[in-house]
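Support case: ribose-5-phosphate complex. Customer-provided input:
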Amino acid sequence: MTREITNPGERKLAVVSGRAHPKLAEEIAKELGHDLLPTSAYTFANGETYVRYEESVRGADAFVIQSHPAPINEWLMEQLIMIDALKRASARSITVVAPFYPYARQDKKHKGREPISARLVADLYKTAGADRMMTVDLHTSQIQGYFDGPMDHLFAIPVLADYIKTRVADPEKVTVVSPDTGRVRVAEHWADLLGGAPLAFVHKTRDINVPNQAVSKTVVGDVEGRSCVLIDDMIDTGGTIAGAVKVLKDKGAKEVIIAATHAVFSDPAVERLSGCGASEVVVTNTLPVPEEKRFDNLTVLSIAPLLARAIREVFDEGSVTEMFNEG
Ligand code: R5P
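Agent response - structure generated as follows:
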């Protein structure tokens, strides 16, 4: 006896979300025009996480959206458990959507006997059952190679630059500033998008024995009387960026607009950013920015349309590269 199989070639999309930033997942789902899969998740008294999908995911191409604000280890573990549940429930493919890659700053050994935690995170995702990854503005591009499988590295620059263009008074007098030498390549891309603006960078030193301690020393490049667009991948405690604003102002910058992808905003970031003298601080919502961390000259742009489009391209086997006009 044969059993009829209906729509044998039909593909099934499952978009699931962890509990770290449900608003972003809801926005992505809305952009996709596809509901989030109903999911139960709770934390036991001893801190263990429980997850269960309330509908079948058998044969589905699943996208596991989780953001990684503090407490980052908890949200990472929850995402790993969600991947494990999908694997054991026979999902066809599992894509990690981690808009802010956890532990990205620990991408190499500065000294002997240190871990490479960014690599460990990739191994954890793989071991849990992930087939591919999607993330936004990695701290360093080489992290793409840490995950043994496809990694779609998305860029927030089109979202940020389109907005910044509307904020600078005189486009002829813009200088793009990198807060350290490590981000000069990204600054070049910014400069192209802002019509060939000149570049400057801040010379920063760091005490590698003390976390979140950087000293901005001086600026190389022409900033006097100019509108400076100061870019970074993330703002954590705000020390780097506030220090850079001070150096730029000391050198005669007319105004400083900050553009950063990931608003980590650990204390005392809000205090530093709101009092640093920047005319505007522009970030995206790869991480949640709760009400108590919002301040007057802060603008939060949504990364959801970009992520939704990338999910659609992956599901439809289209091109993520072409989203960024690279051909
Ligand atoms: C450093 O290399 C990063 O790109 C950021 O500039 C840094 O991690 C931001 O940290 P904080 O805001 O604590 O200075």
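The CA atoms of residues 65 and 163 lie 25 Å apart.

Case will auto-close in a few days if no follow-up is received.
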